[in-house]
Structure formats: C-alpha cells, structure tokens
Amino acid sequence: MGVIPRWDAGATGIASQSFTGSTAPGWVLGGSATLTGGNVDPAGNGWLRLTDTGPSAETGYAYDDTAFPSAPGVSLSFDYASWGGTGADGTSLFLWDGSMPFSVGQSGGSLGYANGCGTPGAMGGYVGIGLDEYGNYANVNDNCHNGGDGTVWQPFNMQVGVRGSAAGGYAWLTGSGILPSSEQLAFPFANTRPDQTGAMFRHVSLTISPAGILNVQVQFGAGTTPVSVISGYNLAAQAAPPATYKLAFVGSTGAINDFHELRNLTLTDYEGTTAAGTGFSVAEGSTYNGPVATVTDPDPGAMASEYSASINWGDGSTTQGSIAGPTGGPFTVSGSHVYADEGSFTPVVSISDLDDTTNTASATDSVAVTDAALNATGNPAILQTSNLALSGTQVASFTDANPGATSADYTAAINWGDGSSSQGVVSGPTGGPFVVKGSHTYSVLGPQTISVAISDDGGSTANAVSQALLFADLGHGSFVIGNNNAGIGTPVMFWGSQWAQHNSFSQRSFPGHFLGFENVRTLPACNGAWVGIVNPHLAAPPASVPTYMAVISTSSTFSVGPLSLGNIAHVVIVKTDPGYAADPSHAGTGTVVGTVC
User: Fold this and answer.
1) Pairing status of strand 172-175 against strand 202-208
2) In the 8-state DSSP scheme, what is residue 286?
C-alpha cells in the first residue's frame, strides 16, 4: 500500500487522483496509457499504466485538463512502479503552459517531454522532471539534446533529471547524478509488480515554491526517510513561469520495454512551512544568544523536533540553530554568534523538515551590529619639568567592550587646554586596554586641563580629561620645607630668616641657622638626602624662582657647624608668591599644589 505524505492543512487542492479504479475523471489518457483497476488488477487496487511490455518506441500519457495558477507554487506526490520487460527509458512528469494544447515530445531518452532530432518536444513546456532509467535524459548525444551532465548511455544508469522550458530548447538544468544501486528507480525483469509494503516501494514528491525553488524527493522503500535528489534548484532563473500550468505524465520506451505505473497522486498549491526573521541588534564582540526566526507549519500536529535549522550569519560563518515551541507551532529558531565588527548584516535562516526535506523554508533577518562601548579615563596627574614640553606623554587610557578591537580602529583628538590641539597616538594589544599619547610644548608653567576625544571607526566615542602640572627645577640646589607643611593646599615658607619658625618636622628638628635653601643637590629625589653648606659663594639662592617649582619636603633637619642636612621624604610642587628675593629678609612663600613623589 502506498504511503501518502503529510500535506499541509492550509494547502489548496488542485487534483487528488488515486488511479486505482477504472476511471479517472478530469484526466485525459492517450497512447499506450490505461487504467488497470477492474481489468489487470482488482477494482479499487489498480494503477495508471503508461507503457506496457508490448511494442518498442512506445509513449503513453495522462494529463489533467484543468489549468491551475502557477503563482502559489506546486506540491505534488505519487507512488511509482517501473518493472517487467527488459527495462526501458523511464517516465517524465511535466508542467506546461495551461493556455496551450497538450502535445507529447520525443519517445525514448527524451521521455516524452524533450525534443528529438527533428521532433518537437512538449508544446509550451516549462519544466520536465525525468525518472530516467538509462541515463539518456541527461545524455547530450541522445536525440540531439540541449545539454546534459556528461552521462553516457549505459543500461540502468538511473537518475532523476530536470530539463527546462520549450522556449529554452528543453535545456538540461540539473540532475541527481547516477543513483546508487540501493536507490534504483526501476526493477526490470521482475515478473510481478514490486511489493508496495517492502524495500521496492517508490514514492516521488516535489515542490515548487512561489519563488520557483524546486525540490524533489524519492522514498526508496516503505517506511524509510525520503531522499532529497534535487534540492533548492531555482527554476525562475531560466524564465518566469506561465500564468497557469497543466500537469502531464508520459511513460517512454525505446528499443525495449517496461511497465511504467503510478497512483495515489495528490496535487496542491505550495503551502509549506513558512519562516520569518525576527530582527535583532547586538554590539560587536558581544555574544548574541537569542531568536533569529519564527517558523509556522499549517499542520496542527507538527513538532519542533521535526525540523533542523542552519543559520548563515551574513559575515561568512554558519552554525546550526536550535528550534523550540509547542506542538503545532509556532516555533522559534535561536542561535548564538559573535560579530567581530560593527555594521549591517543579513543572516539567512534555512529550515528543513526532517520528515520531508522538500518542505523547506528560509527567512532573512536584518541585523544591526552596533559599535561596542568605549570607556575612557584621563591621566589624573601629569607632572612635567622638561622645558614646558610634554613628549610622548600618556594623556588617556580606554577600553573597548569588543575583544577583537585593534588600535587601528581609533583616532584621538587632544585639546591641550591652551587653545591648541593635535592628534594623539593610540596603541595597545588586540582587545585593549589602549592608551593615548601626545606631544606638546606649553608657553607657561602651571596647571593645564587636557581634553581627549576618542572615536571608534564604528561610531562609538568617549572623552577623557587629564590634569597636567608643569613645573621647574632650579637646576642646582633646591628649597626645603618641613614635611608637616607638605599637604596639598598648605601655605609654606621655603626661604627666609624666619624659615625655622614656619616649618614643622615629624622627626628631629635642629634647624640651627638654616634658611631653607640647600645648595648641593642638583635634582631632588625621594628617599635621598640633602645638604646645605654655609658658604657665601655656594649658599646663595637664585635671584628669582619659577612660578611653579619643585621643593624638598623633609621630616628631619639639623645643623652641624657649617652644614645643614636632612632627608628627602617627598618632593612637592609649590606655586610661588610674588615678593621673593635672594635676601633672607624677602621671604619666599607659596602654596603646595602637587606631589612629585
């Protein structure tokens, strides 16, 4: 008994004909075609027999004389048996322009659809699917065929082939290739019809979607999973279909003969599984885990486990999707993916019915991959003593949420705070963190607010603010203050006859005659020591001081004879006040505004 596949409940029926009786209303039979029910076979258990084991070069045909629109697509299914005799060429089923009369093409390897040498093919033919038993449907050297797949004549080179429209000369379009011995279409030399409950049962189904996508399956054995022999071929590439179709079957023999039979035919509009993209957005470098499509099936008994899904993410990578949902649907296809860079992508989700791989659907998503966020931080305390110049100084650091980001993705603009700006240099390993460095020469000492604007080529931006404090060393010798006076914002006296009274120390305090200037150290360094010598030629402080100056902070000071000395607990920056002079009666004062170390 033939197995009739599951047809979608929402499909519009065009023809449903079992061919098991003695009549087939609406169908026209000709040539050698006959119905076996009530004759060769018992009534109600017959077949449409297209050819018999009689004369050679035989054609038998049957067609439904009712035209139906092509726009909704086609779903077709039937049981097939080819047996007896010594083997013959095969059977074609074809769709032709429903506004034109029926005609049969060349017999033999043309399978009653394509032309022969000087013999026309089926008038108005659009597509002919051949169940080919000798390979001659695909043989360019047989019947002056228009193209083929290179197959040469050889008995029982069986395959399923597709030829195109009459307007295109019945050109070869595609084929299954030679089928393996376990997937034969026919059983020549068999004395009885193949057992329809066993391994020799054959069931053919095909779909043509409204977009013109052709899929053909053959079930090789009762209860087995159908095998996809033609998958995803775009018929619309040859030409647009006619407005209406009619359907015909032709059995064809050449020099030898065979029975070619079919029954349990169902013809409907294409109302298969449909899918729609969900659309989503995600930041570059972030993992998207979520839905990419929804799937609907008109069958109320459909289950998510009946489907598989493949997701082409639109960036060159493809993964399998997962499908979930209640019985009857709708189902959700979900996937996981990381886009390496921002942009617009159009993933394609392909859904296949595991029970019937001709039942396919696809959905196109629209995905906006946004630029990952930047997080920038300024350098809070840039201290500089070299001729008012910042050279290759880090002015900001930042991170990008995209682990694949590289330094080449960014530009950085630096506003130096004095009315000038320049481009920064971005560096760092793939994925970050990154730093921005720049060079600039100021005209005055003191604090500067540096603004850094960072831009990603994908559109993300971040801003950072750095604080620079430009100061000077004296070049030789340094002023000294007590460490208890070294806090930021503290007023200090760094020089003068009252120095000892204005400075406090956390450890020893014997300042003696020291007035605040040590004349030995060239550049003060933390954790070192300082020394002052009472010598009119060495001890004299500078005639003037910078507006922002490095000063030693000491926790211990004492004098021994002509020497004054102490430790260097810290080096701080003092903003100096007006009124300083080298004469101790003109005290040097200021305010601590920064710490060097």
Assistant:
1) unpaired
2) S
Q: What is the pLDDT of residues 522-559, one digit of tens each?
A: 667 788 888 888 665 556 789 999 999 999 999 989 88
429 neighbors 397 (Cβ within 8 angstroms) = no
CA–CA dist 436, 455 (Å, integer): 12
Give per-residue pLDDT as tens, 20-63. 999 999 999 999 999 999 999 999 999 999 998 877 778 999 99
CB 293 within 8 A of CB 278: yes
Positive or negative, the CA dihedral 558, 564, 566, 571 is positive
- The rounded distance, in Å, linking the Cα atoms of 132 and 212 is 23
Distance, CA of 567 to CA of 558 (rounded, Å): 10
pLDDT band at residue 154 under the 50/70/90 scheme: low
Tell me the pLDDT tens digit for each residue of 451-461: 999 999 888 89
User: Strand 287-296 and strand 125-132: pairing?
Assistant: unpaired
Q: Is the pTM higher than 0.90?
A: no
The C-alpha atoms of residue 207 and residue 271 are separated, in whole angstroms, by: 10
Q: DSSP 3-state assignment of 407?
A: helix
Q: What angle do CA 292, 296, 298 make, to 5 degrees?
A: 170
Report the distance separating Cα 367 and Cα 384, nearest Å.
49
CA-CA distances (angstroms) from residue 181 to 146, 187, 215, 268, 460? 28, 11, 22, 32, 61
The predicted pLDDT at position 275 comes to 77
In whole angstroms, give the CA distance from residue 278 to residue 321. Answer: 14
Give yes or no for a contact between 247 and 334, defined as CB atoms under 8 angstroms apart. no
Strands 529-533 and 563-567, bridge-based pairing: antiparallel
Structure tokens at 309: 């899904």
Q: What is the DSSP string of 496-519?
A: STTHHHH---SS-EE-TT--SEE-
Q: Tokens for 321, please give them.
A: 């999707």
Q: What is the chain's length?
A: 597
Amino acid identity, position 36: T
pLDDT at 3: 27
* pLDDT at res. 257: 85
Average pLDDT over residues 319-325: 93
First to last CA, the chain: 95
